[in-house]
Design a protein that fits this description.
The protein is α/β, with parallel strands linked by helices. Helices cover about 20% and strands about 25% of the residues. The protein is built from 4 helices and 21 strands. It has helices at about 95-100, 105-110, 190-195, 200-220; strands at about 30-35, 40, 45-50, 50-55, 60, 65-70, 75, 80, 85, 120-125, 130, 135, 140, 145, 150, 155-160, 165, 170, 175, 180-185, 185-190. It has an 8-stranded mixed sheet with strand order 2-5-8-11-14-17-20-21, with helices on one face. β20 (about 180-185) and β21 form a beta hairpin. The chain is globular, with a radius of gyration of 22 Å. The chain starts with about 30 loop residues before the first strand and ends in a 9-residue tail after the last helix.
Length: about 230
């Protein structure tokens, strides 16, 4: 018997050699105000329904997330948001209960302010939010650092040049004065080096500026996607 020719597979005109890119299902902010010098890396996310404002020279690393789903977000000049860090109300729902349990000692020290600040999140000049940190705070002051895996609850007000240690959980509506260093389980001290030596503060600011310059050289800028 002669071999029968194998019938060719019918061509489906709908099939293509390249997968079409799926449109994002995440809501886009009602307005995004970006300074032209902002660096937004590929895969950074800006979502929500309220305005987002990002000041000059700020840097959003890959997979960082800014959400205005519940309230506006404002990032001041020179803010750095590292990989997988999250900023905005509602970004830390999974850690909020844990924060309250692990930080009872902090609330007993009378650090709660009366009532929360207005809705929204504002990060001041040169604030740094490191990898996996979550910031739902009302305000974080100039030069403050939120270290790896830390959590700032809703309504928190953090002063200037504070340091929130790695994996620290700060309860809702907590007030931290300028130059506070938070570490361990609700332990704190005052950074007297920064407080009493202005030249150290200037060195820290200069180092931050060099970091911003390095990121501009190393990270491709995807700002055109958001303008």
């Amino acid at each position: 018997m002669s071999a029968q020719p194998t019938p060719s597979r019918p061509t489906d005109p709908r099939r293509t050699s390249h997968l079409q890119k799926r449109a994002s299902l995440l809501p886009k902010p009602s307005s995004i105000t970006l300074d032209p010098s902002v660096l937004i890396a590929q895969h950074a996310q800006l979502t929500g329904t309220h305005p987002i404002t990002i000041g000059p020279a700020s840097v959003l690393h890959p997979h960082s997330k800014i959400s205005s789903a519940s309230a506006p977000v404002v990032l001041g000049p020179g803010v750095i948001i590292y990989e997988r860090a999250k900023v905005g109300l509602g970004m830390g729902e999974g850690t909020e209960a844990e924060s309250r349990r692990s930080s009872m000692a902090e609330s007993r020290r009378g650090s709660r302010i009366e009532g929360a600040r207005g809705e929204g999140t504002v990060l001041g000049r040169n604030v740094v939010v490191e990898t996996n940190a979550v910031v739902e705070a009302a305000e974080v002051g100039e030069g403050s650092v939120v270290e790896v895996g830390a959590y700032l609850g809703r309504g928190c007000v953090v002063g200037r040049f504070c340091t929130i240690g790695a994996h620290c959980k700060v309860p809702d509506n907590t007030h931290l004065p300028d130059y506070t260093v938070l570490f361990g389980v609700a332990e704190r001290r005052v950074d007297r080096t920064l407080l009493l030596r202005p030249e150290v503060q200037e060195m820290r600011t200069a180092f931050h500026t060099k970091q911003l310059d390095a990121f501009r050289r190393l990270l491709p800028n995807n700002i055109a996607k958001w303008t």
